[in-house]
Fold:
Amino acid sequence: MAIKDLPKEEYILKGHAGCPGCPATIALRTALKALGKKTILIIPASCSAVIQALYPKTAFGVPVLNIAFEASAAAASGVASALKMLGKEDITPVVWAGDGGSYDIGLQALSGALERQTNFIYVCYNNQMYSNTGIQRSGATPFGAWTTTTWTGKREHQKELAEIVMAHHIPYVATATIAYPEDLYNKMRKAKEMKGSRYIEILCPCPPGWRFDMSKTVEMAKLAVETGAWVLFEVINGKVEFTGYSKRILEGKERKPIEEWLKMQGRFRHLKEEDLKEIKRRLDEKWEYYKKMYGKPK
Structure:
């Protein structure tokens, strides 16, 4: 689907409180075009809990349940059960959570909901930190990145939450980013049309947290894919398929140098040579694994 063919309906209304260049708002705008009006959002403590505007008004054109940081997947399980009992199975419960509320604080509830095969879509919009509460490190923060709690650079590598979710053997797992709205839209549509637990993770580069100009949000997301720092794929009933530019890399296209992505972000400006070598080593190792596991046999 081309961008010009996306639905015209808008469910992100005027007056929202997102920052200029906010990737979470861009992502949600596209996601709701795919999901449509019959959607209930379950939002834990996160940027999106603020973006929706101040009570009693809202800038989101669908029902929203705001819930505690750790409880979004559990709350969505309750919403899914209530909809089933009411016979309203054409309404989709969707968790819209950041990486802090998914990788860390909400992981227990998420794993439990997936193990129970809860009929919902869980979306993690990943800005690689706790952005709303002051730019602290999360389990999604990459090695070497500055945050207010890793001000000399994080010394651990990030988790791969999508791969953890894959281990729950749910019907659908996918990754996306705001740089490719058609890809994001199509994956959200696929998820909507399926039943059971579905998980989509969206890379959302955050201008104030990553320290880049707000006009570069989409460019930053695109470069993350082109350098291989972010991978686009989907898993349908256990079958893994790389998509878009990531598929081309898997098939042999050379990745852009990771330095091109890192140098655009103030959070990496302190990197030492040994830090850069470690980042490149880990990235090369990851792609060798992907090619071995999911590439075509030579």
